[in-house]
Amino acid sequence: MSVERNTREIEGTVVTDFDDRMSYGGYLDLETLLSAQRPLSDPEHHDELLFIVQHQTTELWLKLVLHELAAACRLLRKDQLAPALKCIARVKHIQKTLTEQWSVLATLTPAEYAQFRGVLGNASGFQSAQYRAVEFTLGNKNAAMLRVFASDAAAHALVEQALQAPSLYDEFLRLLARTGYPIPESVLERDVTKAWTYTPELVPVFTEVYRDPQTHWAAYETCEELVDLEDNFQLWRFRHLKTVERIIGQKIGTGGSSGVPFLQRALDLTFFPELYAVRTEL
């Protein structure tokens, strides 16, 4: 095949003059986005760019997760379950992308990371305000975490807002109560700034839903969507744990945590314990 035949001609209708038109780069503000990767190692280590891009893209996806979860909560408050489930479905796809992304960072070997780890200082993913806001929105709240963001007003405000707001689960249970399900008053009036804890009184409610899915299809479908969310989150936590273990072993984390043991304990946290407990009752 000749070189000429292996070249695609630009169609005459394709816009090529952007002196006074919106361009792809302009719309996405790529000048700002692509200049935000600033390795600190000197001389610059080849793999530091990977480390930065991995975490920056994670933060972009977390921004979208928060956007979708906030919309889902608003829609549940308005009893608009179907579009809320669409938001949750999108979050599930983002979660899969975030989990798979660990395989890219896992190509970083211990020797490679050791050559630039020192420039991180005390910077750690533990300090991600968006990640913490996602956890809070799903119910794993911890007011003590606000101390981590005391020096960053915007981050502190984001996390505090998530702390003060009802979680996605709270909003779902309130919707169920409004549609006639016997949700206990203690659940509906609980302090939403506290972490959700297992509430056995809810298990009979969900047992009825699961024993007759056709009659309770909307509630049943939502329960399963929430279980998907939790499963995906736990897979993400596990891949995080194994990637960290693969790269730094049992070293202390840059943020001062115990590292792998600290991440291991996160696997014991749960968002929707009653939706798992109900399975024992069926």
UniProtKB/TrEMBL annotation:
Binding site for substrate: 51-55, 113, 117, 254
Cofactor detail note: Binds 1 heme group per subunit.
MF term (GO), any: L-tryptophan 2,3-dioxygenase activity
Cofactor: heme
Keywords, alphabetical: Dioxygenase, Heme, Iron, Metal-binding, Oxidoreductase, Tryptophan catabolism
InterPro entries hit by this protein: Trp/Indoleamine_2_3_dOase-like, Trp_2-3-dOase_bac, Trp_2_3_dOase
Record-listed heme binding positions: 240
Function: Heme-dependent dioxygenase that catalyzes the oxidative cleavage of the L-tryptophan (L-Trp) pyrrole ring and converts L-tryptophan to N-formyl-L-kynurenine. Catalyzes the oxidative cleavage of the indole moiety.
Protein name per UniProt: Tryptophan 2,3-dioxygenase
Source species of the chain: Microbacterium jejuense
